[in-house]
Amino acid sequence: MTKYNVLFLENLNNSIQLLFNPSIYNLEFISYSLDDSELIEKIRDVHIIGIRSKTQLSETILKHAKNLLIIGCYCIGTNQVDLSYCKSHNIAVFNSPFMNTRSVSELVICLLIGLSRKLGDQNCNMHRGIWKKSSASCYEIRGKTLGIIGYGHVGSQVSVLAESIGMNVVYYDIAPKMSIGNSKPTNTLYELLQQSDYVTLHVPLKEDTINLINTHRLLQMKPNSYLLNLSRGNVIDIKEVCRFLKDEYLAGLAIDVYPNEPKSNIDDWECCLQGVPNVIMTPHIGGSTEEAQYFIGQDVSNKILSFINNGNTDGCLTFPNILVNKTKNCIRITNIHNNIPGIIYKVNEVLKNYNCNIKNQYLATNNEFGYCIVDINKSDHINIEKLVNELNKIENILKIYVL
Q1: pLDDT of residue 78 exceeding 70
Q2: Smallest Cα–Cα separation from 159: which of 216, 214, 205, 101?
Q3: Sheet strand arrangement including 70-73
Q4: In angstroms, rounded to a whole number, what is the distance separating the alpha carbons of residues 305 and 325?
Q5: Which partner from 73, 134, 242, 294 sits 20 to 30 angstroms from 398, CA to CA?
Q6: Mean pLDDT of 270-286
Q7: Are 176 and 131 in contact, with CB atoms under 8 Å apart?
Q8: Burial class of residue 70, CB neighbours in 10 A (0-12, 13-18, 19+)
């Protein structure tokens, strides 16, 4: 039996090793991200690769991965992966959009309080031997208004935690979202910025969110309000935010993500925010808790194994999604195909010609592709190799897997 070559980068949680049977999977763990030349060399013979946010899987890299079947993004985002290339080359991509939600949300609340009490500056003073006890410009967050931009999995949980400690919560999202607790939606982003003492961003990086907080938006914020960004580095214009902080229009900033981040802990790094008062900077640690990394590791790994073992594509970002149990005493054949009428009819004609008894058949489609799962009786004694060769002759069938 051919083994799967699996490459895990960026210090993924060790618990995932227990999920991959060493008799089936050749595992290689590397604790850091690789530069492009190293990655190109490593990825040539890899069937499965697991990454976090620093590894960039561009077309330039992916075109060298001739055997690649699956990419596991052990994080929320997938903007580090060329999804268009993966779709056109039938590479399944999975991520974990929910499992670090609590860790990020707790850090937001921590940073809210830290900014309000100037804990970053006070901590630096104490380490330098400066005792500067003062209540000037230090506030409770109780009774203040928190504006949440992006009311998804993280934003909505931040909302619950903020309310529980006495904050008023408003939120803005481009899609209608049901309020949780006493939080209230605003009709526009302008309305949210006008009301909020604290503004926190929880949006994906897309064309319309790049520099979402720019000079225009900063001027719409209340003077002496606070800004937090734990989403993506490019959703704020960091140089303009820095200017508004130095001009004391903003009272403080907490930031965990940056437009340019180093690939490893040993690389030098500079940012215009360094040394600016009441700026709390953390090195992209929103999801960096033992709990979050464990659950992300389990989540993505189980999606990968469910695809390999059962053909399930639930949560896949590049294939139509199907989630079904595997039927006993059956051979499961799956295929990805262009979404053109008549493909399944042609598949079934081939199966009929081979006297296959179809126990189950499942189909999911999107605008581009169809994904089909067929279970046939093991007892039919079908020559699977010949059957697959015949199925591969069908025009617009892109890839076939036999489980």
Answers
A1: yes
A2: 101
A3: 25-29, 4-8, 48-51, 70-73, 92-94
A4: 13
A5: 73
A6: 96
A7: no
A8: buried
Q: What is the pLDDT of residues 145-173, one digit of tens each?
A: 999 999 999 999 999 999 999 999 999 99
The pLDDT, as a whole number, for residue 1 is 58
Would you kindly state where each structural domain of the chain is located, as residue ranges?
A: 1-100+291-319, 101-281, 321-403
d(CA 42, CA 38): 6
CATH no. of 101-281 = 3.40.50.720
Is the domain 1-100+291-319 a CATH 3.40.710.10 member? no
Q: What are the distances in angstroms from CA 11 to CA 181, 264, 274?
A: 37, 11, 27
11 vs 15: CA distance, rounded Å:
11
Q: Mean pLDDT over all residues of the chain?
A: 95
Helix (H/G/I), strand (E/B), else coil: 57: strand
Give, in degrees to the nearest 5, the angle at Cα 312 between 308 and 318. 95
The answer to whether domain 1-100+291-319 and domain 321-403 are alike in fold is: no
Give backbone dihedrals phi and psi of 334, rounded to 5 degrees, phi first: -120, 155
Catalytic residues: 232, 261, 284
In residues, how long is the chain? Answer: 403
The dotted CATH code for 321-403 is 3.30.70.260
pLDDT digits (tens, 9 = 90+) for 279-333: 999 999 999 999 999 999 999 999 999 999 999 999 999 999 999 998 899 999 9
CA nearest to 181, candidates 165, 195, 197 = 165
